[in-house]
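Human: I would love a firmer grasp of how sequence relates to backbone shape in proteins. Take your time, and here it is.
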Amino acid sequence: MNSSDRFPNPPAGSFPRRSFLKTTLAAGGASIFAPQLLFGAPGKAAPSARVNLACCGIGNRGAEVIKALDATGLVNIVALCDTDMGAKHTQGILKMFPKAQQFQDFRKMFDKMGKEIEAVSVGTPDFSHFPIAMLAMSLGKHVYCEKPMAHSYRQVELMMAAEKKYKVAAQMGNQGHSEAAYFQFKAWTEAGIIKNVSKMQAFMNNPRRWHGKKFADFLPQESVPSTLDFDTWLATAEEHKYNGGYMNGEWRSWFDFGNGALGDWGAHIFDTAHEFLNLGQPTVIDPVKMEGHSQLIFPQECTLSFKFPARGELPPMELTWYEGQNNTPPLPSDFGAAVVDANIPPPSTGKVDTNKQPPGKVIYGEGLTFKGGSHGAALVIIPPSKAKDMKSKLPEVPKSPSDHFKNFILACKGEETCRSSLAVAGPLCKTMALGVIAQRVNAKLEFDRETQQITNHKVANGLLAGVTPREDWLQYYKL
């Protein structure tokens, strides 16, 4: 069964008469074929060339992504796109790249510059990753997309299919996949150091933007700033009235726009375990603890139990996710000091509560227990006496040949393979999307891995497809 069978196209509206694909063909001639005509093999830039990069989302986290990609020395920043080009947080990037063409609408950017763009960075809010990435891939452009890949289970599936169909390099921005954590987990599982894992705890207990807040309804309408294209900002989301309380990271608080703490930090904490333990999707997602449940914003505290079945010779496994400032997990008595990656960015609030346990994980395998942090932090065997006994038995862990951003650019050039391609990141994002649905409906869910349907909750099953997009945005589900 393919994704179109599981998730039929939204019923509302019809395909707009003048799709942006037609616009691109009309305005840019053969721009849709640019990768083949200009750069040789489909989806590959000339090996000796710098990659012409267009950047969507140029403030906040998007700005950090642009700087990191530019620091590779392998890109030309040819276009900058943001729905609010006059906002304070966009000005730094605009000053860094004054020669790049500027746009407020990514569709117009592709219309005008389709022939010149080879790759795109997507550093916009969670809910708007999908249309930008889908249009870019359909035009043969490589895509670096911040995590989580998309806002709904269905969008993730369509993005995975597009990566395969259009044969582009696509990388999700969980940068730990190019650091020590990735190579160690891979080497230790292949060597049997990490084996027969039955249980894992993952936790994120720092403050979040929605903590301490309650809302009875969506925010009241305010005047749209003159510099903001709010309709394009909404993208595939449902119609909302503008309020500044949705902007500049506040969107992550709302189910309609973000994926909460799980979608934000899960991709940095249990990503390697998800890949190298071949977890796929859980069969049960249970919100065993829920404080401050809301239909609008994410809970104040939540514990989610994900139960995965046996996978071949691998045993069943339970992954328990803890979020909320006072919802710390029961750690082993010999856990000791936390494992912290000094290079991780602060939480979206810009604050780290030093009295709380830093984000991390505990993995319970056969004969060994491991503690870890987030992002690129390597695992540590506990207790220390066991780590000392195991030291001579540990395999050599190779060093990373490139950081996450350079890995992507080299993949655009055909010299490396994306380590967090959408084929790899997609199953992780689908697991997180299921967790978000369980948080939203506050119910235990049963998931059929074969049909990819939630079998015991009709409303939750409907949420797999996400919202019905506004008419002008339906086309991105058909690319």
About this structure: The longest strand covers residues 284-291. DSSP finds 16 helices and 15 strands in the chain.
